[in-house]
Amino acid sequence: MNSPSQINNPILLYDGECKFCNFWVALIQRQKAQQKFRYFALQSKEGVELLRQYEVDESTDSIVVVHKGNFFVKSSAALKVVKILGGRWNFYLIFWLFPRPIRNWLYDLIARNRHRFFTRRENCEIHN
After folding, report:
1. Which long-range contacts (CB under 8 A, 24 or more apart) does 51-54 make?
2. Whose CA is closest to 82, among 35, 36, 16, 19?
3. Which of 69, 77, 82, 115 could potentially form a cystine with 65 if both were Cys, beta carbons 3.0 to 4.6 Å apart?
4. Structural domain that includes position 112
5. pLDDT single digits (tens) 85-105
6. Is residue 12 part of a domain?
7. CA torsion, points 64, 67, 72, 74, in degrees to nearest 10?
């Protein structure tokens, strides 16, 4: 694995077993952003190593963004993705105005129910 100083692009870690998460990663890739991020499932060897390296709670099962030596989780990670994507995605940056506890409450509500609405995957369809 490359050290953080060797990694030019932000890293997007996602739940590789979640159909909802895979949908969003595929959508990001289709936005001509496939070169803006490096993608790893949380369950992958690289994902586990990055979580340990950045001391992210190992029970984390939502998105994590590693960018410029920092990591972001939950709503902050989602908004970091939006900021990096730029363009028409910038509209969603308005959610930075909401206090983090409110953003994360909404994020957690969606995250808790994502497996209920989308069946779990056996294999990840995202390719690095």
Report:
1. 51/13, 53/4
2. 36
3. 77
4. 4-117
5. 888 888 888 888 999 999 999
6. yes
7. -50
